[in-house]
Specification:
The complex is a heterodimer of chains A (310) and B (510). Chain A has 310 residues and is an alpha/beta fold. Chain A has 11 helices and 13 strands. In chain A, a hairpin with a 4-residue loop joins strand 11 and strand 12. In chain A, helix 3 crosses helix 4. The C terminus of chain A is likely disordered. About 4% of the residues of chain B have low confidence. The relative contact order of chain B is 0.16. Chain B folds into 2 domains: 249 residues; 235 residues, Jelly Rolls (Sandwich), CATH 2.60.120. In chain B, 36% of the residues lie in helices and 24% in strands. Chain B is of the alpha+beta class. Classes of the chains: A alpha/beta (310), B alpha+beta (510).
Chain lengths: 310, 510
């Protein structure tokens, strides 16, 4: 198998007045699913197009297995990609779509049937792609990405338009591909989609990387967390806890959110002060929380993001 | 080989979209359908629906009035052409008027028998082109070439020595000037020699307005007054010719007129005078032409469906490329084949190759069987040599293929299917269509020099002849550029448009 690592190093690109990529740098390593997260317009798709040689960066470089994509003789055997599931000739059947891709890499036609089966499209290969639902098109795009049995895969928003069953299939599928030793890069604008799928996330905003970390690490960072207290005497509870916690904020629905104190301590303090409470729950941090924490810190990014067109 | 794989992929792409395949097949089908439909009728017999062709392979007209004797071995004939007069058709209602067609001819001839299309050499006084030596239909030499010359009385002499016939002229019958000499390879020992007269179909371009032009044509006649005919050598005793005056009939057989019956033709014949003959003839002894001055159609006209086929081919060509931009499929294509010029070249080659194959098959069938259909319908079809037929068939296929590639180039350059299709049709098909229908000759000549439609010249099966006055129009299969020139114009278009598309593809983000 070819070297699977995707290296993105210092990419810079402008679209008119907008800086689309501003020193984008990260590495996608084999054997794990790397999530590529950021709001729409953060530069995810542009980065992927630069990796594929479709867009040219003004500075920096992107390498697949140490070589530029455009120099690869059979690129689909090095990096499989899915950018836009709707990019299909509607009159062509699913199998024939895969067939011309196979021929472009010198692969036999039988490979088209194999990947159709892999993507769960075995029964509809002879149907025209124009009649496919978005979910089926995503599967066809996955099949196309797998055609060359590449060591690296790059998928742009593969969960878009998929039904819940499809999303579960996709998650399992991506994890299996990583387990086989492939490097898998999956972009999403929703961190929650990647929970339970990605082992590693690259969080981007405004054309550059905000965080590049293992998911476990991120969760641990966000977990020293929030505790929700439900009480019939909300003011007294607030007064008691304020002396011992970092912050106590009323949520307006008869609950408080407490940070900077362990759940055991909160219970002990309320009990000692004789304040009645009906619930004390430690809120388990999600990837979404971690993401929000990260992006909340990126003030510049938050201010700029809404105006960023792309 | 990377490029071979890209070619394979593009071929798979082309053949797996049913609409495109059907579109290309439909293009070939309309060429076949129009080529095998009897589009023109006529009154020729099935046996002589192929006009005669001369020793050098061209279709020829061979119709004149001829007073002759038989010459065995070497010898010469001398006579004075004292006068050349003629009658021209009048297009204003009257039957005829006095006048000479520029290529009205009266003179001396040595000919292999009297069979249509046989070898000959002739020296003649003409209506406007002075004294000429012509032989074997296609050759024409004359000292007075160029300027219009009023016919003056002149002594003429033809001398045969072996395969060579030499022509001379003289103002007074004593001082002789060489006109030229002709080699007639394989001329038999016994030939005919004598005096002839003929005058070609006379046409006028009437009422040339901005968009409409009309052509009127009708036979003309020429009368030569010959004095003091003298022969040297072994000649037969009596002059043979058409019966004098009463029931004239052309001596030379010749090109039957497919479209118009000749039974009501002009009065021709020959009559002896005190010291010679007067010979009145109508017709021509020259290369046959199509159009106003000729009666037959050419094989090019069987390919009249080409422009319709071109429409289909051009639409598929433009959509084949532009469709990828519309759906973003171009990114998938470039991800699979990152070398952009490879992709563009492969697209043009695959499309051009497929269209060339289909066009070749359709044109070959039409050129092989179309003339039979026309002859079966009574229309005379000009003879075309095998080499000409091959060139017309291959040229048609090349025209279609290059136009497909050009449309693909427009698709890549403009990236929008509707725009690319419109531009392709306006640039490629429309100029031809206007040229063969409503445009005056000068405008169409210009269009057919600069637009891709110039390559329709590849379909021209007969050359223009200086010695035949004709309205050489695109509608009759005559184009302003030679075949290679038309091909070059189209090739330049393809190179420029594909080059521009390649530049854009390389320079821009996909």
């Amino acid at each position: 198998m070819h070297d699977a690592t995707i290296t993105v190093d210092g990419l810079r690109k402008r679209f008119g007045p907008t800086l689309a990529l501003d020193g984008m740098t990260f590495t996608v390593r084999p054997g794990r699913v790397t999530g590529f997260v950021g709001p729409n317009g953060a530069g995810k798709s542009t980065t992927m197009r630069v990796i594929l040689g479709l867009d040219a960066a003004e500075e920096g470089r992107a390498l697949v297995g140490g070589r530029p994509y455009r120099g690869l003789a059979r690129p689909l055997c090095h990096l499989g990609s899915l950018l836009d599931a709707a990019a299909l000739q509607p009159g062509r059947t699913a199998r024939n779509h895969l067939l011309w891709l196979a021929h472009s890499q010198g692969l036999p036609g039988r490979r088209a049937d194999e990947v159709l089966e892999l993507a769960g499209l075995g029964g509809v290969g002879r149907r025209r792609a124009g009649g496919f639902s978005l979910g089926m098109r995503q599967r066809l795009g996955i099949a196309a990405a797998l055609l060359g049995d590449p060591p690296a895969l790059m998928l742009d928003e593969p969960f878009n338009g998929m039904d819940p069953e499809g999303i579960i299939w996709m998650r399992t599928f991506l994890r299996d591909l990583a387990r086989e030793g492939r490097a898998v890069l999956v972009s999403s604008h929703l961190m929650s989609e990647l929970q339970g799928t990605a082992d590693h996330v690259v969080v981007v905003g405004r054309g550059r990387v905000i965080a590049d970390a293992a998911v476990a690490e991120l969760l641990a960072g966000a977990a020293n967390g929030r505790i929700v207290v439900r009480s019939s005497a909300i003011d007294r509870a607030s007064a008691v806890l304020r002396e011992h916690a970092e912050s106590v904020l009323p949520n307006g629905d008869g609950t408080l959110t407490v940070t900077g104190a362990a759940a055991e301590e909160v219970i002990a303090r309320l009990t000692a002060a004789g304040v009645p409470f009906s619930e004390v729950s430690a809120h388990r941090a999600t990837l979404e929380d971690a993401y929000l924490d990260l992006t909340r810190d990126a003030v510049e990014f938050r201010a700029a993001a809404p105006g960023e067109a792309r | 080989m990377t490029f071979a794989r890209v070619l394979h992929a593009e071929w798979t792409k082309l053949r797996t979209v049913r609409g495109w395949v059907l579109g290309l097949l439909a293009g070939a089908a309309v060429i076949l359908a129009l080529g095998l439909t009897p589009s023109r009728g006529g009154s020729c017999d099935v046996s002589d629906c192929t006009p005669a062709h001369g020793p050098e392979g061209q279709a020829v007209a061979d119709q004149f009035t001829y007073v002759h004797r038989t010459l065995t071995g070497d010898g010469s004939i001398t006579a004075r052409v004292a006068d050349l007069t003629g009658r021209l058709p009048a297009f204003d209602g009257a039957q005829t008027r006095d006048g000479l067609a520029p290529w009205a001819k009266a003179g001396l001839m040595i000919k292999d028998g009297t069979k249509a299309g046989s070898a000959y050499a002739a020296v003649m006084l003409t209506g406007e082109h002075g004294v000429r030596l012509q032989w074997n239909y296609v050759h024409d030499e004359g000292v007075d070439a160029g300027a219009k010359v009023k016919p003056q009385p002149v002594w003429l002499r033809l001398t045969r020595a072996g395969d060579t016939v030499t022509a001379e002229k003289s103002a007074d019958g004593t001082a002789w000037v060489a006109v030229g000499s002709a080699r007639l390879p394989g001329l038999p020992a016994t030939v005919t020699a004598g005096m002839f007269a003929t005058s070609p179909q006379y046409s006028e371009q009437v009422n040339e307005s901005v968009v409409l032009s009309g052509v009127s044509g009708a036979p003309s006649t020429a009368t030569g007054t010959f004095e003091h005919p003298v022969t040297t050598g072994t000649f037969s005793a009596d002059w043979e010719g058409p019966p004098g005056g009463a029931a004239p009939e052309p001596a030379g057989t010749g090109a039957p007129d497919g479209a118009r019956a000749r039974s009501e033709g002009p009065q021709t014949g020959a009559a002896p005078t005190a010291d010679g003959w007067t010979v009145t003839g109508s017709g021509d002894i020259a290369p046959a032409v199509s159009g106003a001055a000729g009666g037959s159609v050419t094989i090019s006209q069987t390919l009249v469906g080409t422009f319709l086929g071109l429409m289909f081919v051009v639409v598929v060509g433009a959509v084949f490329v532009a469709g990828e931009y519309r759906r973003g499929l171009i990114r998938t294509s470039l991800a699979a084949a990152p070398r952009r010029l490879h992709l563009l070249t492969a697209k043009a080659l695959v499309l051009g190759g497929a269209v060339f194959g289909l066009g070749l098959a359709a044109a070959a069938v039409v050129v092989a069987f179309g003339p039979r259909v026309l002859r079966g319908n009574g229309a005379a079809v000009a003879y075309a040599s095998a080499a000409t037929q091959v060139r017309v068939v291959a040229g048609t296929a090349l025209l279609l293929a290059l136009c497909a590639a050009l449309a693909a180039g427009f698709g890549a350059l403009l990236r929008k299917g509707v725009t690319a299709v419109t531009v392709s049709i306006v640039v490629i098909v429309l100029p031809y269509l206007l040229s063969v229908t409503v445009l005056p000759l000068r405008a169409s000549d210009w269009l057919l020099r600069v637009t891709p439609a110039a390559a329709f010249a590849l379909q021209q099966s007969e050359p223009r002849w200086d010695q035949v006055d004709n309205i050489y129009s695109p509608a009759d299969g005559y184009f302003p550029l030679p075949a290679w020139g038309g091909l070059a114009v189209l090739a330049v278009w393809v190179a420029v448009v594909l080059g521009g598309a390649g530049y854009r593809l390389r320079r821009r983000d996909a």
